[in-house]
Specification:
Layout (H helix, E strand, L loop, with lengths): L1 H20 L4 H17 L6 H13 L3 H15 L1 H14 L4
Helix pairs in contact: 1-2, 3-4
């Protein structure tokens, strides 16, 4: 599942801005569609703390799921830093990030 998630993130990183700026770019939009399918496949493995917190809070408050995820993400990453640091380093390298 991790490999599928990594490839999906790479496709998003390489195609999101292109698809946004040029909505008629079918190739970029196709890559985003593939990335969405990869994300759905990857989360079949299970959801983490961000989603575990976001689902009930979004239901109670009516806030958009993506917004609640974004609010929780930095706090969960800080909380899980020791456990995920190696994966985040690998992800940064895979996506050519500093």
């Amino acid at each position: 599942a991790d490999g599928i998630a990594l490839e999906g993130m790479r496709l998003i990183a390489e195609n999101l801005v292109v698809a946004f700026d040029h909505g008629g770019n079918i190739e970029a939009r196709t890559h985003l569609l593939m990335a969405a399918a990869m994300g759905a496949t990857a989360f079949q493995k299970g959801l983490g703390l961000i989603h575990a917190l976001s689902h009930p809070l979004g239901g109670v408050t009516g806030c958009h799921h993506g917004t609640v995820n974004a609010i929780f993400q930095p706090y969960v990453m800080i909380n899980n830093r020791k456990v995920i640091e190696h994966k985040m380093s690998q992800l940064a390298g895979y996506l050519n990030l500093p």
